[in-house]
Design goal:
The chain has a single domain, classed as Alkaline Phosphatase, subunit A (3-Layer(aba) Sandwich), CATH 3.40.720. 36% of the residues lie in helices and 15% in strands. The protein has ten helices and seven strands. The C terminus is likely disordered.
Length: 243
């Protein structure tokens, strides 16, 4: 079936739309003590905490606020309702690695050099990213999830906390490079990433933080029994019963 021009436009806008309206959240910095200084309050407003969540391989319409007939996403919907929801935005390079590099640099693919999904390991170490700039002015920065600009999972400049899988990673019991040390962590990857991001955000600190969490989208994996691995993933995601 041939898509109309309007449908093709919506398809092309999938990644940038999702990240723009629901994946960047500015959170006012909190403090346990009462703030009496006007300069301190002004500094909190000028240097907010930032959480950036990039959802991997999610269509523009697979969220409740976009009018999906059965998918329910109340938390994402609330971000859109209380913040900004960009309904007419576009990606210049609808491919995983180049678009990921564009989010981090604000540059077109021909400028930042990540032009495909091949092993751009060395080039991705040289990217001049906005988290690197935030780190330089005192932000506590973290990258958690799927880097996938090459298979090299070693820490990139500008991130104080680094928890990344090699390449595409694994859905079940994935291996992470955590600040230079490889660790296999038991569980389902989405739950693990969520726990890591929550732990980072919850850390006591005096400086503002920047947390970038990229969700991992993996096709169901097969073990020796075939169906059982898919069933495990579906059970974690949906709560279904598996025999």
């Amino acid at each position: 079936m041939k898509l109309s021009d309007q449908d093709q436009t919506k398809e092309l806008s999938s990644r940038i739309t999702l990240s723009a309206f629901t994946c960047i959240c500015l959170l006012g910095q909190t403090s346990c003590g009462e703030q009496s200084s006007v300069s301190t309050e002004h500094n909190q407003l000028a240097r907010p905490n930032i959480v950036f969540v990039l959802i991997d391989d999610l269509r523009w319409d697979e969220i409740g606020v976009a009018g999906h007939p059965y998918i329910q996403t109340p938390n994402i919907d609330q971000v859109a309702i209380s913040g900004a929801y960009f309904q007419n935005s576009f990606t210049t390079t609808a491919l995983c690695s180049p678009s990921r590099a564009s989010f981090l640099t604000g540059q077109y693919a021909h400028t930042h050099g990540i032009t495909d999904n091949l092993a751009r390991n060395e080039q991705s170490h040289r990217l001049n990213t906005f988290p690197k700039m935030l780190d330089a002015v005192g932000y506590d920065t973290a990258f958690i999830g799927k880097w996938h600009m090459g298979n090299d999972d070693t820490p990139r400049p500008g991130f104080d906390t680094w928890a990344v899988m090699k390449g595409q990673g694994e859905a079940i019991n994935p291996e992470f490079n955590v600040n230079g040390e490889r660790k296999q962590i038991q569980g389902y990857v989405t739950d693990i990433l969520t726990d890591m991001a929550t732990d980072f955000i919850s850390k006591p600190r005096s400086d503002p933080f920047f947390a970038l969490r990229i969700t991992q989208s993996t096709a169901p994996e097969r073990d020796a029994t075939g169906r059982r691995q898919f069933c495990r993933i579906a059970k974690w995601n949906c709560g279904i019963h598996c025999s």
